[in-house]
Amino acid sequence: MTNLKKPGFSFRLRGMGRYLPERVMKSEEIDQKAGWAVGTTATKFRIKQRHYASDMETTTFMGAKALEEALNEAGLKAGELDLLISAAASVEQPIPYQASLLHRAIGLERSGIPCFDIDTTCLSFVTALQVAAHFLQAGTYKRIAIVTSEIASIAINWEVPECFTLFGDGAACWILEADPTGEHGLFAHHLKTYSYGSAFCEMRAGATKFNMRRPPPSPNDYLFSMDGPEAFKLAVTYVHEFMGELMGKSGLSLKDIDLIAPHQASPLALHHMKTQLKIPDEKYVNYIADYGNQVAASIPIALYRAREEGRWTPGKNLLLVGTSAGISLGGAILRL
Q1: Do 177 and 142 contact (CB within 8 A), yes or no?
Q2: Which of 74, 245, 61, 310 is nearest to 171 (CA)?
Q3: Packing angle between helix 267-276 and helix 228-250, nearest 10 degrees?
Q4: pLDDT per residue over 155-193, tens digit each?
Q5: Which one of 78, 142, 208, 316 is least enclosed by Cβ atoms within 10 Å?
Q6: How much is the pTM?
Q7: Spatial contact of 264 and 293, defined as CB atoms under 8 Å apart
Q8: Distance from first CA to last CA of the chain, Å, rounded?
Q9: Bridge partner residues of 10 (DSSP)
Q10: Which residues contact 109 (CB under 8 A, 6 or more apart)?
Q11: Are the C-beta atoms of 79 and 108 separated by less than 8 Å?
């Protein structure tokens, strides 16, 4: 039964949107591309399919589609927003920042409505929720759109199975606004960073260190690389302490949580968290077989589907939790 304690930061969810690329690669196609026997991807990696963006489905295009759906659900026009946040690791180009491209794409180019980016890689959406909660609580803004649009497929190294079987593309949007009743909002947010693991998940080229003028040692430095076992070991080392601190901040217990939406990092990470925290199936969101790791979009896309399936209804307590390159652990406890 949902705990009736009121959140410390009050706001409500006005609208949600999602965009999934049209291109779907089934597990059999992945087997063929990898040169594996048919069924390997499905059995070994527990993967059914992945959505991959086409050249026309840019991060801006996908984000705009998700935002348009959220605006339609909310019964709003883009000009009725007070702030637009792009919360993602993917950017269409280094300059200008991604939020400004999205701002222009949805017709706000002469509005003066502010926008900015937040990037804590896979935790960007969760971090943006914390920022939005403070703004809404303070009255700085009354209506905020958070858009997360990720194209991980562009950086896939098809020579590394743990990369090409894992990632997918997609976009999501939440529109949040002040809640005068105080019944909905954020109970707690927590973020901890252990940067000794910063090299465990990285793309080394494409910015100021290695680029067109200063080429990297290898073309593969432009692609995502990961030391999966070391990243997993780091997360496992700190997850119990982290969860205890997050729950302590909220004033709630795991029994008070109605649905847990973890970052869809990998099948192994999802299984470990569920097992270690003894989370029952009905409370756990796991759609990695269909969508893969969609970077920061994985949590809001998972929650979109959970709502479609009736697993999440208004007034429920939600726990969002995950890890990101850096390496950071982050989480938020909400009632929406």
Answers
A1: yes
A2: 61
A3: 40
A4: 988 888 777 888 999 999 999 999 999 999 999 999 999
A5: 208
A6: 0.95
A7: yes
A8: 15
A9: 185
A10: 103
A11: yes
The helix/strand/coil state of 184 is coil
The identity of residue 233, as a single letter, is: K
Token pair of 43, please? 């059995």
Judge whether 90 and 59 are in contact, CB under 8 Å.
Answer: yes
| CA 139, chain centre distance (Å) | 26
Domains of the chain: residue spans and CATH: 9-181 (3.40.47.10), 186-335 (3.40.47.10)
Complete edge-to-edge strand list for the sheet that includes strand 170-177 = 12-19, 170-177, 143-150, 83-87, 115-118
Q: Are 46 and 194 in contact (CB under 8 A)?
A: no
Amino acid at 281: D
Q: How far is CA 95 from CA 91, 100, 101, 207, 303, in A?
A: 9, 10, 10, 11, 31
Q: Which residue has the tokens 């939020």?
A: 99
- Residue 218's alpha-carbon distances to 142, 199, 204, 214, 325, in angstroms, are 48, 16, 10, 12, 21
For residues 224 and 237, give the distance between their C-alpha atoms in angstroms, rounded to a whole number: 24
Rounded to the nearest 5°, which phi and psi values hold at 172? -150, 160
Output the CA torsion sign for 100, 102, 108, 109: positive
Output DSSP code: residue 22: S
40-53: per-residue pLDDT in tens?
A: 889 888 889 999 99
As a residue count, the chain comes to: 336
Rounded Cα gap, residues 202 and 61, in angstroms: 25
Whole-angstrom Cα distance, residue 16 to residue 74? 8
